[in-house]
């Protein structure tokens, strides 16, 4: 049994990770400032006696005693991270500095949740870890993209300078229960619009591609990455290499929900990547990991979650806000 710190633990991925670690018998310290996370997301934790919640912003130092650190704290959807771009950059960089400082003091392993956005609008497809990326450093997405890139730099400098045991996961598009219904991500957008029989918004012609990994598969990858033996002086892509166009995704969501929604087209957002697909050979070789949940099965589970959310309240967004600040 370990005592494990998960920053951003009340968020979408963080809440699933906390639940997984508790199930394995660990004591989990969930740290979150509830900017985008919600305590309601932790309702799926089976043994609350092993879960401790702490409201804290990682841009400030944290003094606790733990055996491992998963650093997931940062808004991850464009709507949320562009709302306060300066704070987003501070969360990525100062948060990394503070968590690395804690890990250095404790001499404990630390995992950074990086992102496929470090690749920007890529010229290499699928994206391999050795690709340096093509990012607009002055665009509206740069607060997140560059913040995560700088955090990676800090992690590998701590590895080289202080021999700190680090892990860096580059997370590709992930979906599943506990997504915020208004986070602006394509899966949650499409499902909410479809369930309400509202027009489904397609940007451009919908031919841009993404690859979607179900959250349980992603958490399995994170846990394996943390526990892989030896030094690991490279980031590792975690995502589903099965590629699909946004238009195909919209049609699949309409089919699975039985929706009467029609498709409407809007101009492409600034710096929106045309392609996004992971090359996961490193994850296969080092972690013996690959996604298992097919897209249709994962979408069905996610749709069921949003259906329950809608049926439980006339205003599910307000319900989540109330739970976050309870």
> N-to-C terminal Cα separation, in Å?
30 Å
Secondary-structure element string: EHEEEHHEHEEHEEEHEEHEHHH
Q: Give the overall form.
A: globular
Question: DSSP helix count?
Answer: 10
Give the number of DSSP strands.
13
The gyration radius over C-alpha positions equals 19 Å
Give a description of the structure.
45% of the residues are buried. The chain has helices spanning 12-23, 78-81, 85-106, 142-162, 186-195, 215-227, 246-257, 281-287, 295-312, 316-324; strands at residues 3-7, 27-32, 51-55, 68-71, 110-115, 166-171, 174-175, 200-203, 209-211, 213-214, 236-238, 243-245, 263-266. With 326 residues, the protein is an alpha/beta fold. Helix 4 (142-162) links the parallel strand 5 and strand 6. A seven-stranded parallel sheet has the order 3-2-1-4-5-6-11, sandwiched between helices.
Topology of this protein?
Blueprint: E1 3-7, H1 12-23, E2 27-32, E3 51-55, E4 68-71, H2 78-81, H3 85-106, E5 110-115, H4 142-162, E6 166-171, E7 174-175, H5 186-195, E8 200-203, E9 209-211, E10 213-214, H6 215-227, E11 236-238, E12 243-245, H7 246-257, E13 263-266, H8 281-287, H9 295-312, H10 316-324
Parallel strand pairs: 1-2, 1-4, 2-3, 4-5, 5-6, 6-11, 7-10, 8-13
Antiparallel strand pairs: 9-12
Helix pairs in contact: 1-6, 3-4, 5-7, 5-9, 7-9
């Amino acid at each position: 049994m370990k005592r494990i710190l998960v920053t951003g633990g009340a968020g979408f991925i963080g809440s699933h990770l906390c639940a997984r670690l508790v199930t394995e018998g660990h004591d989990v310290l969930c740290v979150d400032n509830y900017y985008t996370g919600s305590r309601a997301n932790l309702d799926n934790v089976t043994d609350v006696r092993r879960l401790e919640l702490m409201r804290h912003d990682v841009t400030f130092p944290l003094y606790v005693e733990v055996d491992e650190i998963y650093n997931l704290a940062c808004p991850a959807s464009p709507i949320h991270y562009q709302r306060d771009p300066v704070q987003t950059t501070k969360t990525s960089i100062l948060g990394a500095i503070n968590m690395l400082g804690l890990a250095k003091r404790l001499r404990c392993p630390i995992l950074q949740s990086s992102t496929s956005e470090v690749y920007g609008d890529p010229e290499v497809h699928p994206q391999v870890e050795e690709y340096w990326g093509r990012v607009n450093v002055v665009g509206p997405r740069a607060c997140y993209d560059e913040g995560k890139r700088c955090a990676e730099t800090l992690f590998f400098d701590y590895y080289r300078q202080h021999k700190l045991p680090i892990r860096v996961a580059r997370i590709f598009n992930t979906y599943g229960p506990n997504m915020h219904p208004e986070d602006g991500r394509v899966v949650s957008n499409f499902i909410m619009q479809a369930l309400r029989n509202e027009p489904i918004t397609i940007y451009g012609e919908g031919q841009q591609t993404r690859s979607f990994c179900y959250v349980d598969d992603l958490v399995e990858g994170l846990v394996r990455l943390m526990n892989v033996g030896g030094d690991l002086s490279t980031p590792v892509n975690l995502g589903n290499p099965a590629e699909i166009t946004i238009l195909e995704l919209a049609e699949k969501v309409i089919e699975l929900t039985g929706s009467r929604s029609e498709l409407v087209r809007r101009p492409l957002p600034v710096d929106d990547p045309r392609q996004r697909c992971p090359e996961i050979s490193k994850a296969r070789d080092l972690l013996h990991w690959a996604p298992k949940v097919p897209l249709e099965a994962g979408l069905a589970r996610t749709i069921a979650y949003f259906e329950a959310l809608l049926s439980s309240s006339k205003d599910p967004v307000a319900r989540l806000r109330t739970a976050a600040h309870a």
